């Protein structure tokens, strides 16, 4: 019998170790995104497909970036993550040089690029933030003498790095990105801390959230009064106060503050079980829901594909999270496990918050729906994160490229 070519064996191991199912799930979600954006923007510019084309281009760029990352050992990314961190910090400072963006959007969050595109540095900070946390919490990087660094030094470094990066994003201000970073930190603590410490912290947070919702329901006016004081003192911006106001009293100002939330509820509710059909939704085709192709893209799916279509999308998200977690379990080191856990935690929060605010279960925060909402920076970063997750799962055992 002839000998099996070593390179053929390596190709088979590539196919076996790479999580093809996760890639298929991501592509399926992206296909749903293109359909939803196509419907939500169908009446824009006389039926122009420009938003769909741009989203498709960013998806292709994201796929290329994802494949590139799979081929680079994630431990190499971890080793040099500080360079990426400081590059993103510089970009987070550059956003403050464009006050015109803040006037238009209410936040210093984007850097205008040629051709009408915009770069959102806070999106890319999530990537380096996850890698930084994984590096210093897992504490598996050895120095030149083969010694493992003092964990306390790592804690101090990651705390300082977190304060600087998160602080710049808070100043923009970007509440949605800040909350996602907190979700990443929460997931990292869940993995890292002794379970009794974590559950004590979790119970504290849970009680705080319960008190928040109790206060909004039992004493809504008093709660808003407290937020108004914070707004007057400059702690909260007016648009942030308005988001809490519409969350508590969405029907009181339907012509202004409560308009978006109310129209979102009408769109989803009118979809009923099977929806009105693609391109047939009156709310979607009539442009009744502001920002429907971005933050409120779920309303287009809910109206035109109904409860069944919405559940199908949520099931795809479940498969996405499941495969990310499984890649984390398969990791050969704690660093890889930390990375996958934080990516899964961040996506879980995004999905819950975005769908929740569309159903008026959560306050509006500007959080996008992963791989679904329109936005180049968001799509690219999501693909980068999936690329790193695939990288972790792919390197659960060593590959040899030797012909010997």
Automatic annotation (TrEMBL):
What kind of membrane protein is this, topologically?
Answer: Multi-pass membrane protein
List where the protein spans the membrane.
Answer: 20-40, 52-71, 83-103, 154-171, 198-219, 305-324, 336-352, 372-394
* Keyword DNA-binding assigned: no
InterPro entries from the entry?
Answer: FtsW/RodA
Molecular function as annotated in GO:
lipid-linked peptidoglycan transporter activity
Q: Which Pfam families match?
A: FTSW_RODA_SPOVE
BP GO terms, sorted: cell division; regulation of cell shape
Q: Which UniProt keywords apply?
A: Cell shape, Membrane, Transmembrane, Transmembrane helix
- A single cellular component GO annotation: plasma membrane
Entry keyword annotation includes Cytoplasm: no
The entry's localization annotation reads: Membrane
Protein known as: Rod shape-determining protein RodA
